[in-house]
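Appendix B: complex inputs.
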Amino acid sequence: MTAAHENIRSEILVAGAGATGLAAALAFARAGLKTTLAGRIPPPLPGRTVALFESSVRFLDALGALERVRARGCAVEAIHMIDDTDQFLPVPELNLRAREIGLPALGVNVSNDDLVAILLDLCRDRSEIAFVDADIADYEFNGDGAVAILADGRRLQADFIVAADGRNSRARAVAGIDVKEWTYPQIALTMMLRHEFPHENVSTEYHTRSGPFTLVPLPAREDAPNRSSLVWLMSVADARRRLAKPREELEYEIEDFAKSELGAMRIEGDIGQFRMGGMQVSKHAAGRLALVGETCHIFPPIGAQGLNLSLRDVADLEDCLASVDLKNPRELSRALARYDRHRRGDIGFRTHGVDLLNRSLIIPYLPVDLLRGASFIAMAALGPLRRAVIREGVLPHLVLPRLMRRPAHKPEVAGAPHGRAGLRS
Ligand SMILES: Cc1cc2nc3c(=O)[nH]c(=O)nc-3n(C[C@H](O)[C@H](O)[C@H](O)COP(=O)(O)OP(=O)(O)OC[C@H]3O[C@@H](n4cnc5c(N)ncnc54)[C@H](O)[C@@H]3O)c2cc1C
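Resulting structure:
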């Protein structure tokens, strides 16, 4: 990574240095494009982990990050889902196992801070990436390119802007892309836990009337052999009440929610709290700009879809732009229309799916309860349906970009070039 100079010029400028922006900078640099990454390094996120599924695991492998992510994370081999709503139908517990679809694991769970640190290190190692540790104040778009303007007046010129600057994206606003936003009456509390009994690399998701309570395996530490992260959705009033409790009482309540399956609980470090909301955009690209990550989709953390979807945005964009001359407006516009079409389907499907499941839990309504219960019963009973659901969650085949197609750790074809042209061969 080169140091920042005045008036940098690059082919791609990535705005935002969160996990999505860092992955985008690496993906375009790997494809041989001169890339600027602009944005401040995000502050630590207390208690936050991300479960990254097989498609993301393959992408991390392509970016050269997988070994380090695996070393800091924990494999998730199965998801155990329990309807804990006391609904009318007797709903069976559901086990979604990686080995049912021929994989050793569904994915890997890693702390958000570790993931960002690993990707940042990799960006620093790449000579194609110039890192500018500052927020972008404004943009100018024209027929030939774009300029990102920093608060101190420095101008970063690029053929194309990849906006990964999060939910309040300045790039999106300047490009005039409309957003639709909504809120849920919920907060997610996040924390890391030590517990008495082993998790056996299984994530357990209790579907309660306030939203999911999800335990995800974490790696052992020398002084703590059994650890998990928790994402717990609840009403704002319950979150206030729980945060005001003495730790010991909260730990006891968590053990109770988890039916003592993992035994006694101890909270490690700080507890995070995040208001739940949703967001969709009117389009995912315009002119010389494309949106990735939370600039173009937000939904509650149910089924661990958010960053997995963001990494698909990045891999898909890299795919769509692969053989495009960025200086040619017609070629670019065709590629962006394709990107918009792909993202509309993938993002729309996840956003509506998560919204439906969340609302079906928090709004008790018998017909909806029955439908949710019936889908559990069908999945528990029908192997092909269950396997299709597992595959769609971890390796969605209809929208799988090339960088996510090759299974991790399969050797590259001997002598295959690593440059931009080589990727497309
Ligand atoms: C409780 C919780 C649990 C979750 N669990 C999972 C999970 O298990 N699996 C999963 O896949 N997803 C999960 N997610 C979703 C996932 O964490 C997010 O989708 C992801 O972190 C978003 O990353 P991002 O880089 O797109 O956005 P951000 O992390 O918001 O990054 C945006 C970056 O842009 C920067 N920025 C802002 N303005 C500017 C500017 N003007 N100029 C330059 N830079 C700017 C910001 O400083 C920030 O660093 C979870 C989310 C929550 C809330």
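The chain is about 35% helix and 30% strand.
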